[in-house]
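Need tokens for this chain, all 211 residues.
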Amino acid sequence: MANVEEAGVPGRRRWFRRRPGREAVRLAGLALLAGAALNLAFAPVGWWPLAPVLVAAVSALFAGRSGRRGMLIGFWFGTGFCWVAFQFLRVFGPGAQEAVGVIESLYFVPFGWGMARVSAARFAPLWQACLWVAEEYVRSRWPFGGFSWGRLAFSQPDSPFTPLAAVGGAPLVTFAVALSGTLLWRAVWVLLRDRRERGAALDGAGRAGLA
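Here are the structure tokens for all 211 residues:
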């Protein structure tokens, strides 16, 4: 998996591989936006379908990346998400939101490393969904007894995923939402790959016809 960055993952362009600094800025910006946008799936907006869609979007950012790059993506995704999710902490005084936001964002660093490392593995969507559950489990227990706000399950109070809570609680709901998102990205990946392969085949046939 160490060489997956050169494996031709759809969406990767030589232009960015030649300019790693620009690629890092681009990835950080996209991750920050995805994290902030994920809050729209939660109350008071409550657009629950956005949760699996944005899981798919951030999965696309992790696809084919190195663990180090995954840590960068994870941190900025967590920063975008936590900075918005914990705005209510402002009532506790200056710096409360910022302090908790930074601490909570750090949980997404090892999460990002794992998401990137397993992105090219067999059954990657399954392992990535497990990483979402694991990240939420740890974040809900430390520090100060944990901060459970922002779990994917809490974005699904009235959705097709809700009945799963009666079977496996919030972790199972989170797993189902995350798995739906990672599978969505994998479906898009397959479509892009097949489209690229068909294009290459047609191009090759055209060149052969002109020869």
